[in-house]
Amino acid sequence: MSPKRAAKLVRFDQAVHRMVQGEDAARVAADGGYFDQSHLHRDVMAFTGSTPAKVAGEPFLVVDDRAWPGHANRRVCLPV
């Protein structure tokens, strides 16, 4: 994996976790280093084939407790 692709995946991972926590996609995009909300939308579509709203609402991966203290049993969508 190239460094650019790895950085894109890390940014995507952080954005998805924030959206699962209920944050607005526009705010997540602005704070997460995306140019705009449509930039975030394109990354979500590229990694998952789904919209940001659908990804945030389809839990299938347990959140790592070390990365997200207190959320060990919460399930979120994070495709690889």
Question: How is this structure best described in words?
Answer:
This protein is mostly helical and 80 residues long. It is 54% helix and 5% strand. The protein contains 4 helices and 2 strands. Strands 1-2 form a two-stranded antiparallel sheet. Mean pLDDT is 78; it is low at 72-80.
Report how far the terminal alpha carbons are from each other: 12 Å
Reported by name, the CATH topology is Arc Repressor Mutant, subunit A
Low-confidence stretches: 72-80
Indicate the proportion of strand residues. 5-15%
Count of the domains: 1
Helix/sheet category: mainly alpha
Number of strands: 2
Q: Please, what is the average pLDDT?
A: 78
Number of helices: 4
Strand order, biggest sheet?
A: 1-2
Task: Specify the biggest β-sheet.
Answer: 2 strands, antiparallel
Order of helices and strands: HHHHEE
CATH class: Mainly Alpha
Brief rundown of the structure:
This protein is mainly alpha-helical and 80 residues long. The protein has four helices and two strands. It has one domain (3-76): Arc Repressor Mutant, subunit A (Orthogonal Bundle), CATH 1.10.10.
Question: Which features characterize this protein?
Answer:
single chain, about 80 residues, mainly alpha, Arc Repressor Mutant, subunit A, two-stranded antiparallel sheet, 4 helices, about 55% helix, disordered C terminus
